[in-house]
# Entry
Amino acid sequence: MTRNPPPIDLSEPPAIEVRGAHKHYGALHAVDGIDLRIARGEIFGLIGHNGAGKSTLFKMILGLTPATSGEIRVGGATVQGRDFRAARRHLGYLPENVVLYDNLNGLETLRFFARLKGAPLAQCPALLERVGLAHTGNRAVREYSKGMRQRLGFAQALLGEPQVLLLDEPTNGLDPQAIRDFYATLRELQAGGVTIVITSHILAELQERVDRLAILASGKLQALGSVQALREQAHMPLTIHLTLAATDRPAALGLLSAVPGVTGTETPEGLHVDCPRGSKMAVLGVLVPLGAALQDLQIQEPSLEDVYFDLRKG
# Structure
């Protein structure tokens, strides 16, 4: 079941605000007029095809890539302004491809990044513990697996107790348990008021874990909202699975025919019903006469992947 997003109070200063942001590389418009407000303490997803502008937007928010035009504020500070240097100390970033020094061990790596960021060195052992690498802190990074490198990269993003985290494909190489632990850590951080922006090509992974998300396509913001809001925007039908004996299926199809726009097809277990979103209660109502003949009923919402491809078509 999709989690309910927290209320977004637009009267409060957002953690991240993007106004009319453009980034042009000659004729290529990598980011093309994006407006976005991300609330404090929100877990926000950013999805789109390769080349949609996600990583470029991340780099613009970090101040690594200057905008061609428009304005970006993080924690109230303009990214290209004089106050941003101080604000950037409260940012954490995990790039899609983590590059580490193979000859350093895990603890030395964290201490190296801590010095660069001006974060306390004393945080490093605890962060290794937090990402499940305490037992490998003295091992050379060249001996780390891809998943261990990814967790070490996440640990460096957490240096300095950031208030805003930007995570680009953060679960690359992680096994299912590590992914579960990673998102549990994000929930703990969110409970402490941290704002998290995350990209992933694994849409099923984000579906139950973000408060809102934005869909980018060719540098433009194509859709914005909670998963449920995007489902409603896409006007995609619900799928209802009915478990019925073969002898009861003709009667069920007859009842369903009374609801406009509803179609039913037989399956080995019963019926597969496509139902317009607004007709759900009408379908449930017409099925009442089946009584105990209806052995089971499951209502399936469109997945985030279904919604993504539907909105991209539009």
User: Anything to note?
Assistant: The mean pLDDT is 91. The first strand starts at residue 16 and ends at 25. Residues 176-191 form the longest helix (16 residues).
